[in-house]
Amino acid sequence: MWFRSYFGVPSSITAPDGRPVNAVRGFLDSVATLITQYQPARLVVCLDLDWRPQFRVDLIPSYKAHRVAEEGSPVGQPGEEDVEEIPDDLGPQVDAILEVLDAFGIATAGAEGFEADDVLGTLASTERHDPVVVVSGDRDLLQLVSDDPGEIRVLYIGQGLKKAVLFGPAEVAERYGVPEHRAGDAYAELALLRGDPSDGLPGVPGVGEKTAATMLTKYGSLDAILVAAHDSKSELPKAVRAKILSAVDYIEAAKPVVRVARDAPVHFYTDDDRLPRQPADPQRVADLAASYGISSSIGRLQKALATGA
Q: How far is it, in rounded angstroms, from Cα 308 to Cα 110?
C-alpha cells in the first residue's frame, strides 16, 4: 500500500524541511478511509521482512529476479544480496509510517524469512473469531478467499482504493472461471499454470489463463489435471497433455512458491491487534504530525479511529 501511495501521490508533497512525505500522506489517508468504510475491531499492518524468501528462490530461481537491484545500485549497501529496487526517497518514508503507526498503537506484524503475503495468509487462515478482510493490490492474495472455516474476503486495490473490489469465493469464481467451492485454492492453481511475469513465474508454456480455467472447471483441481495428463485415454486434448507433461517439474516446484504460507512464524510488534480509539502516545503523534507536516492526514486517521466500531 505504501508503494502505491508513493506512486499515486505527487512527490511535491513534502515535510517542512523538504523531505518527501507523499507515501506517508497517501498511506495514512488510505488507512483512515478503510477504517471508516469497514469499521474493523482489529487491524494489523503486515510487513515484508523478506521480499524474496530463499525457499522460493531455491525452487524457482527466476522468482522476482527481475526486481533485484544491480550490484552497485544506490538502493543497496555493499555486500548485500537480493536488494529490492526501491526508490531512494521511499525507504525513509516507510520508517516514518512505522513511527506513526507505533505512536497510534496500531498493530504491525512480520515473519522472518517470509513475505508480507505470508503474514496476511497466516493471520487470515488461522482466525476463528472474526470475519477477515485482507487488503492488497496483489492478486496472489485472492487464493485466501473462503467461507469456511472462517469468512475471508479480499479487498483488491490494484486499481486504487476508489476502484477497490471486494472478492469472496463467488466473485473469484465468476471473474476467473474457477470452481466456486474451492475458489481460493483454484485461483492459486490458475496462477501457477498461467504464470505471473510480475513475480518471475514462467507458468506452463502455451497454457494461458483461459485454458487453465477451462481445465480447472472440468477436472476440479491441479492434481486432477495432472492425473488426466498422465492418462492417454483422458479427454484432455493431446496438445495440452503434452504441455502439462513437459512442465511437471516446474509445476511441482512452483506449488509452494505460488501458495501463500498459512503457518509463517508471525511476530507482533505490538501487544494488541485491537484497533485503538485514540493514540497510544498523543504527544508523540502531535510531534510527528508537526515534524512531517502531515497534520491533515493525522487528523483524518484520528477521526476515523474515534468514530469506528
A: 25
pLDDT 10s digits, 85-131 = 678 899 999 999 999 999 999 999 999 999 999 999 999 999 999 99
Q: Distance (Å, rounded) from C-alpha 145 to C-alpha 153?
A: 5
Q: Using CA atoms, how far apart are residues 235 and 218, in angstroms rounded to an integer?
A: 10
Q: Which CATH architecture has domain 1-114+265-300?
A: 3-Layer(aba) Sandwich (3.40)
Q: Would you kindly state where each structural domain of the chain is located, as residue ranges?
A: 1-114+265-300
Q: What separation in angstroms does the CA of 126 have from each of 43, 120, 176, 202?
A: 15, 10, 25, 30
Q: Report pLDDT digits (tens) over 178-235.
A: 999 999 999 999 999 999 998 999 999 999 999 999 999 999 999 999 999 999 999 9
